[in-house]
Design a protein that fits this description.
- It is a single chain.
- This protein is of the alpha+beta class.
- It contains 6 helices and 12 strands.
- The protein has 2 domains: 73 residues, no CATH class; 156 residues, Aminopeptidase (3-Layer(aba) Sandwich).
- Helices cover 23% and strands 34% of the residues.
- An 8-stranded mixed beta sheet has the order 1-2-3-4-5-12-6-11. Strands 7-8-9-10 form a 4-stranded antiparallel beta sheet, sandwiched between helices.
- A hairpin with a 4-residue loop joins strand 8 and strand 9.
- Helix 1 crosses helix 2.
- The two termini are 27 Å apart.
């Protein structure tokens, strides 16, 4: 099946009837079922166990409540996250940063200049901690992970180092990562930078609006305090998603 250029694969029961659909991908060297969903012809509870068996050794991203059915059938929940969108119409005025800080285009810096603030923002125990965060940041910069870095991407510079960043990708493609997309938004956790993340995010959305973008999307892991910041800035939740892994048979 082809949906808008994306190849959709089906999971079938023994009689050849569809149980679910997904888009094949790969993450961390394992096969991954993106946007895994239950077929309309069957109940989620009835299909879940067979899907868990069919995708043994895989990972998956599932929308809505079907993730809970799969967990009940033996899948392991890796994380729950939410997607949000922000309308950029009418144009957004750009705020000013505190004295001593500059807003500079992210493209003026190599990705390693952001490592210190990135690793400090997501220490072990944080909902979004990732041991491979520097490598992922490299992939965002070179466009291999989500598409090209948009010129509205920006960092906050205190004269010595990058202390915050908001990166936007031209991520044309499938939900939940349809672009333009805020791929990273973080700040150094030091007390001198309290509130800086929200200010920089506001600046970037203003620049995105000036560049002619009409909306921005992002995702945030459940439990990340940044959810409250995004909602305060006007982002609207669009969907709930679950990343899962299926045990080997």
């Amino acid at each position: 099946m082809d949906a808008g250029g994306e190849v959709i694969e089906a999971i079938l029961d023994r009689d050849g009837n569809p149980l679910g659909y997904f888009e094949r991908d790969e993450r961390g060297g394992r096969p991954w079922a993106d946007e895994l969903c239950c077929a309309a012809e069957v109940s989620p509870g009835a299909a879940a166990a067979a899907i868990v068996r069919s995708l043994a050794g895989w990972g998956a991203t599932v929308a809505g409540g079907f993730g809970s059915d799969l967990v009940d059938a033996g899948a392991r929940r890796l994380r729950t996250f939410f997607t949000y969108t922000l309308s950029l119409s009418p144009p957004i005025p750009e705020p000013r940063l505190p004295s001593g800080l500059q807003i500079l285009p992210a493209g003026q810096f190599p990705p390693e200049a952001l490592y210190e603030a990135l690793l400090a923002a997501y220490p072990p125990g944080h909902p979004d901690h990732d041991d491979d965060a520097p490598a992922s940041l490299d992939g965002l910069y070179d466009g291999t992970l989500m598409g090209p870095l948009h010129p509205c991407s920006a960092v906050a510079w205190d004269g010595r180092r990058v202390v915050a960043a908001v990166l936007v990708q031209d991520a044309e493609g499938k939900p939940p990562l349809a672009g333009p997309w805020i791929s990273e938004a973080f700040r150094h956790p030091g007390p001198d930078y309290a509130g800086l993340g929200a200010l920089l995010l506001h600046c970037v959305t203003a620049r995105a609006s000036d560049a002619g973008l009409t909306a921005l999307g992002l995702s945030v892991t459940d439990g990340n305090p940044a959810q409250a910041v995004y909602e305060r800035l006007g982002f609207t939740r669009t969907a709930r998603w679950t990343d899962l892994e299926f045990p080997n048979a």
